Structures are given as structure tokens and as C-alpha cells.
Amino acid sequence: MKTQFYCSVCKQTKPAQKSGGTGYATKRNNHKICYECCGKQDKKYLKEMKPGEKWWLYLSKDKITNWPGTLSIKINHQVTGNHNIAGNRYDVWFNLGSDNFHGVQYGDYTQVCHIRKLKT
What we know:
mainly beta, 7-stranded antiparallel beta sheet
């Protein structure tokens, strides 16, 4: 494993982690991005979404997170319901600043949460 990597966003050379992941993600163009910059970009993307646009994050108990966990948003409200195929459906509502979002996770064997920005 490489001992260092260059983040294409913050332009810093950082040490690669030895456990719990590498410390970076690789973008489609093979450029690396550190987990910290990934969290900042994910937050920026949420803020710039238009009402009705969709995205995917992760539902983890009482919060919504991105893959490396560098974005974490507390859930305001959660409702558990039934789903004809997945068994359970988890609806969550959260906000980021003045923006409101709704997310749905289908079933108990995933953490993928389908996010949609709500109209204000």
C-alpha cells in the first residue's frame, strides 16, 4: 500500500491510513480526494441541489452520513413503515441550514438512503 497520496482538491500530500480505509477516495479520473474534502464536497452538493433532485447517502441510526463518515447530519424525524418487497421502509427528514430533505431506506439489509431535496 502507498504510504502517501496527493489530494486533488486541497492540493496536499497526506499520509495514507493503515487501517479503517485508505484515507482517500479515487474519482472517475483516477484523481484522489481525501476524506475531509469528500465531506466538504458532499455538503456543498447537498446545499446546491434543486428541489426534487435525488442523491444517495447512508442512514445510520439517528443520522445521515456519507461513505467515509466525514459528513454527518442529525435526523429530525423518522417513521418506520411497511414495504411490499423490502419488508420495512424507513422515512427520514433532516435539514442542512435552511434546506429541508427527505430520505428513504428500503429494507434492513442496506444503509443506502435515497435523498430528495424538498421545496421550501
